[in-house]
């Protein structure tokens, strides 16, 4: 059984960077298999929470292979996105996807650490992070950075897995993420242990209420959250 507490060293930024670069070439395929495609709907819902305006500019933190950035520009006309990530391996694949989609004019993918975002204050209409905040060792700092770079009235949107609370579903969910998911992950990625971290980090991440409190502590207002698909994931939204 997996502990709800996680050794802090498991989230050592260098380890996380290396892990994502190692699995980057299989990341999109694994996502699709492991989530049965539901992750696309979750990303769309998260994006729908971003504030809209003419020529809006958004920041996609921990953009990885760029799925959120791509979906934003496809669904919000005239928008531009900066996607940042600290895994060069993930970014490389994201850059190819952006270029193949002919969206290089609207999406800029570059290196950046979530806890020290390389942007001025009040730059973006909204900042978003999908399945990234769980991996950030000092996640409060990450949220505070996402707030710093958005304009007043702008929004911070967080999409992340949560721990399922429903008593009937919980045992099946735990079995799936602690046994099935690491097994499939290892077979597809060919990397032993790479998908051991995923369930550990999912189960150790704070509850939606705790995350809401942390967002408020960073100064965000009107913080709300929406549980998605039986509470497997949640979208938190706060306003600066
Ligand atoms: C599970 S992937 C999510 C990628 C993408 N957002 C998506 O929805 O598919 C997590 C990403 O977070 C990135 N990441 C983790 N910690 C980070 C940090 N401190 N700064 C920047 N990127 C980080 C990893 O490199 C990885 O690409």
SSE blueprint and pairings:
Blueprint: H1 13-35, H2 38-48, E1 57-61, H3 67-75, E2 80-85, H4 88-100, E3 107-111, E4 124-130, H5 139-148, E5 150-161, H6 170-189, H7 197-204, H8 208-217, E6 221-228, E7 233-239
Parallel strand pairs: 1-2, 1-4, 2-3, 4-5
Antiparallel strand pairs: 5-7, 6-7
Helix pairs in contact: 1-4, 1-6, 6-7
S-adenosylmethionine binds at residues 13, 16, 20, 62-64, 67-68, 85-87, 90, 113-115, 130-132, 135-136.
Description:
This protein is of the alpha/beta class. The chain has one domain (8-239): Vaccinia Virus protein VP39 (Rossmann fold), CATH 3.40.50.150. 43% of the residues lie in helices and 21% in strands. The protein has 8 helices and 7 strands; from the N terminus they run H-H-E-H-E-H-E-E-H-E-H-H-H-E-E. It has helices spanning 13-35, 38-48, 67-75, 88-100, 139-148, 170-189, 197-204, 208-217; strands spanning 57-61, 80-85, 107-111, 124-130, 150-161, 221-228, 233-239. It has a 7-stranded mixed sheet, sandwiched between helices. Helix 1 (13-35) crosses helix 6 and helix 6 (170-189) packs antiparallel against helix 7 (197-204). The radius of gyration is 17 Å and the shape is globular. The termini are far apart. The structure holds S-adenosylmethionine (SAM). S-adenosylmethionine is lined by residues 13, 16, 20, 62-64, 67-68, 85-87, 90, 113-115, 130-132, 135-136.
């Amino acid at each position: 059984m997996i502990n709800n507490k996680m050794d802090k060293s498991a989230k050592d930024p260098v380890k996380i960077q290396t892990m994502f670069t190692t699995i980057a070439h299989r990341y999109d395929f694994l996502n699709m298999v492991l989530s049965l495609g539901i992750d696309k709907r979750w990303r769309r819902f998260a994006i729908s929470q971003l504030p809209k305006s003419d020529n809006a500019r958004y920041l996609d933190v921990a953009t990885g292979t760029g799925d959120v950035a791509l979906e934003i520009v496809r669904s919000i006309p005239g928008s531009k996105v900066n996607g940042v990530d600290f895994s060069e391996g993930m970014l490389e694949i994201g850059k190819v996807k952006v270029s193949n989609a002919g969206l290089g004019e609207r999406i800029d993918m570059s290196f950046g650490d979530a806890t020290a975002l390389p942007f001025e204050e009040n730059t973006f209409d909204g900042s978003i992070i999908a399945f990234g905040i769980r991996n950030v060792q000092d996640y409060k700092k990450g949220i505070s950075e996402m707030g710093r770079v958005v304009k007043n009235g702008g929004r911070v949107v967080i999409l992340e897995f949560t721990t399922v609370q429903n008593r009937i579903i919980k045992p099946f969910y735990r079995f799936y993420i602690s046994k099935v998911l690491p097994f499939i992950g290892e077979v597809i990625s060919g990397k032993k242990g790479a998908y051991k971290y995923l369930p550990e980090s999912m189960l150790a991440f704070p509850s939606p209420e705790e995350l809401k409190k942390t967002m408020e502590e960073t100064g965000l207002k009107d913080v709300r959250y929406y549980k998605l698909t039986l509470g497997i994931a949640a979208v938190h939204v706060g306003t600066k």
